[in-house]
Amino acid sequence: MKILDCTLRDGGYYTNWDFDSNIVDTYIKGMNNLPIDYLEVGYRNKPTEEYLGKFGYTPVSVLRHLRSISTKKLVVMLNEKSTKVEDLEDLLVPIQGLADMVRIAIDPKNFDRALTLAKSVKELGFEVGFNTMYMSKWNEYEGFIDKLGQLDDVVDLFCMVDSFGGVTPQDVKDIFQKVREKTACPIGFHGHNNLQLGLINTLTAIECGADYVDATILGMGRGAGNLNMELLLTYLNKEGINLDFNVLGDVITAFIPLYKEYHWGTNLPYMISGANSIPQKEVMEWVTNRTYSFNSIVRALDNRKKHLEDNAHYPILQIQPISKVLLVGGGNSCIHHMEAIKEYINKNPTMPIIFVTARHAALFADNSNPKYYCLVGNEAKRMEANVSAEHFEGTCILPPYPRTMGTEVPNFAEKYTFELKEITFTKSYTDSCTTVALQTALCLGATEVDVVGYDGYKGQVLSEKEMALSNENRTIFEDFKKGNIVILRSLTPSMYKALNIKSIYQFL
Fold it and tell me: Cα–Cα distances in Å, from 150 out to 103, 184, 427?
């Protein structure tokens, strides 16, 4: 039984395949002294529009360096869906003698096409592996299992991939037996850890006679991640495999800063997606998105499981003849200038207040102006924390139906909730609180939109989330100004240049 470590390839989903050279060298040299046979170091990809780091392309120079310091067999991966036979001249010929195996990530529905690609890869002198996805759903691919006999003498490794992270040990036994009955090709197993079954599933595969098993350092990998290599090796050490724990500890230590930065591993949304065979790609995007709460993610997964577009429908907000609205953001300037903001509101007693976020809603509890609350992401929960159910006299606004993350509305606001018919001024960030607030202003017929609490972020160094939110709001404001003749101005200090800055004090 051979062990394949795919930390750099699978872990790259968190780092965009960028890894510090010192980490990589420590990893490679440590692996030289551990009982691991293959290192899958990255992808070979054709040029794409998106950014992929070093190990998203694994250039010849990088492979040459790895080859010079590694004593293990090196593996690169191709995505079958984006690779044709004619691409191999550019992707694989330059790395002959540098990589030992080429694994091909395949969707079972493309088996015939992948087999043709594999034959061409084999002719170039590489070992060939199939990373065959969606093993929990193979029975749904008519004729797929029966085709596996065609792998013999072409493919050197048929790896069963638990793409959704939801198979059980019994599933592993059943599927392994079906595969073994159809092919003499060596069989591997690549497990994901959504349900914390990575170890037991891998040990079950070994018990069944698996020829290869995959794992990664600290379990680093897409979504919920994989079986921890250190856990697998520790167990196998108990079974008699020789292991230098000092070397293993050095490799783990090299990756700890990345773990602290990205926090991969399973959580409730990943558990639900694994249990219901829902792809991890979207879940990973949702989990790392600052606006989505666990409740909203779970709701979206539940809708997906039930094949629903959304879990609720509400009446459409109707256009009303209102000239001016005030948008209240979440910035601290709302607190600093609260007395002035309240005086300004008192001078405009019919002016609706649109809470982009309910963060400061409690400060306006005694005000009698019409109030609108934008419910996106975690805002329903925030509204419940900042708005008294007993004295609620507002209107809740939702993005247009259907909503990607489903719908959550506080019970006390159900009768006073409406959804927007459409977003008319932008195609970007259509589920943003800011977008919903501005569209609400348009639906209310406003020709003047004043905002407070859109401070922006000061300082030269912003966190990734601060930078993302800043770019998001800037884009939304710019799109709003392009498509509308509505006056848009900030009455409190703001870093957003798309806003026309006016001092609230000049209107008092």
Answer: 17, 10, 47
Q: What is the pLDDT of residue 168?
A: 96
Q: Give the closest residue to 148 by CA, choosing from 187, 179, 189.
A: 179
pLDDT tens-digit readout, 168-206: 999 999 999 999 999 999 999 999 999 999 999 999 999
Which carries the bigger pLDDT value, residue 296 or residue 49? 49
Per the model's pLDDT, the better-predicted residue between 468 and 90 turns out to be 90
Three-class SS state of 234: helix
Dig out the tokens for 39 from the structure. Answer: 């290192």
Other CB atoms within 10 A of residue 149 CB: 12
Q: Where does residue 502 rank: exposed (0-12), middle (13-18), buried (19+ CB within 10 A)?
A: middle
Please write the tens of the pLDDT for every residue from 151-160: 999 999 999 9
d(CA 206, CA 188) in angstroms, rounded, equals 9
Closest by CA position to 195, among listed 231, 225, 232: 225
Residue 58 to residue 102: CA distance in whole angstroms? 12
DSSP 411-465: GGGGGGEEE-S---S-SS-TT-HHHHHHHHHHHTT-SEEEEES-----SS---HH
Give the C-alpha separation, 161 to 223, whole Å: 14
Mean pLDDT, range 61-82, rounded to an integer = 97
Do 3 and 211 contact (CB within 8 A), yes or no? no
